[in-house]
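Re: the 213-residue chain
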Amino acid sequence: MTDTPILYSFRRCPYAMRARMAIVASGVKVALREILLRDKPQEMLGASPKGTVPVLIDGESVIDESLAVMRWALKQNDPEGWLENDAGGLIEECDGPFKHHLDRYKYAARYEDTDPVQHRELAMAFVNKLEARLEGRSYLCGDQRRLADIATFPFIRQFRIADENWFDAAPIPNVQRWLKGLTASPLFQSVMEKYPLWKETGAEFRLAGAGKS
C-alpha cells in the first residue's frame, strides 16, 4: 500500500468507529493498522504523541481528531451528501457535555465521588433532544443519514451498552429505532470487522466494504 494514507485504529473506540465509517462511505483508500490502546506502536506515537485514535497519516500531514478525519475523507468524495447539514451543533454537544456525563456514567469507578445515576440523567438531556429531533423522520437531518448521525451514534451506542435493559425500557422510541437501524446497517457492520494487530503481524488492510488489499 505504498503512498496510501495510513489509518491507525482501535476497533472498539467510538471515535475510530465514526472515522472508519466516513472513510468507507467516501470510498477513499487507506491502509488500516489495527492497534491496542494498551500497547500502542511507536510509529503511531511518533506521528501523534497524544496516543489516541484515530490517527491518519497522509504524506507529511497527520490528522489525529476523528471529526477532522471524517471531513478529510468526505471532502474528497461525499456520495451521500453527509456534509450538507451539520445539525445545528449536535456533534459539538455530543462530544462535549454528553461525552462528559457518558464517561462518568459508564466508567464511574474511574472518577472520585461520582454518582453514575446522576450523570445518566444529565446525559439524557442530550438523548431527549435527539428523541425530539427524530420525531417523524428517519435520521437527525431528515430521511437520509448525514454527518451528525454517524458522528453521534457510536456514543449513543456506548450509552446503551452501559445498561441495555434500562436503555431499552426508557421512553425514547425514536432514538431506539434510530440506533437499532444504524447498528444493523451494512456500513457499521463493515467497519466492525476484526483485523490482526499491525504491531504483531505488520498486516495492513483496506476497510471492509471498500475491498481489501
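DSSP finds ten helices and four strands in the chain.
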